[in-house]
Amino acid sequence: MAAPVCSQSEDEGFSSQDEQETSSREDSGDAESSLHDALYLKMTELVEFLLLKYRAKQPTTKAEMLSRVIRKYQDHFPEIFSLASECMQLLFGIDVKEVDPSNLTYVLVTTLGLTYDGMVSNGQSMPNTGLLVMLLRLILAEGDCAPEENVWEALSVMGVCDGKVHWLYGEPRELLTKVWVQEKYLEYRQVPNSDPARYEFLWGPRAHAETTKLKVLKFFLRDYRRDPRSVPSLFQEALSDEEEGA
User: Fold this and answer.
1) What mean pLDDT do residues 66-71 have?
2) Helix residue ranges, H only, the chain
3) What does the pLDDT look like over 203-242, one tens digit per residue?
4) 97 and 107 in contact (C-beta within 8 Å)?
5) What's the rounded Cα separation, in Å, for the pair 76 and 32?
6) Do domains 35-112 and 128-245 have the same CATH topology?
7) Separation CA 154–CA 108 (nearest Å)
8) Acidic residues bias: where (predicted)?
């Protein structure tokens, strides 16, 4: 017996509705993905713009960022600005600091109070202070004295490898064992009585003069939240040093 006409009509209606709902979800997903890609692109453009301002030692304003970079995505400025600021701090060691709330003016300064601008004389266009800050933290995590092999093992996770030129930081061994030693941010010395010779890194006098253990540890608090086992002892030591310094 043939199916009733009304039953066929209902089946066709349900099928059509399912297809419309599926199509609507796909369209919504495509639109969300497209917006995400557009905001990510704007974030990278804003980072490039802020790096130009840093190298020129010029301030910027929210109005300038909106007109020159953000443009039609102004409603998403808080999200884009937040991501760009975090990238500047973690990757390049640069803080985007508000100095005039009345017209939202910002300056770009090296983080943690360091006076080193991260620009070396070989034509490198990107500041490398972010790697220096990472290394200062690694030394603290190793008990103020980091074996060289442990440093390279930790940095390799970031793609920074001994003897391999990095796209952002250049030749890392030269930075770690020469540039930052000459700048007095690091000490690089042979481990006493080691045979064959092994080497280790310590904070240099300029690092001690310009920043503190507590500032460095607070900077990386987001990392310690993922691994809280190292927090108590490191922070207690940093607080003790802070009190002694005071």
Assistant:
1) 95
2) 5-56, 62-65, 77-92, 129-141, 148-156, 172-174, 180-182, 205-210, 213-219, 221-226, 231-245
3) 999 999 999 988 888 887 765 555 434 555 555 565 566 6
4) yes
5) 13
6) yes
7) 28
8) 9-21
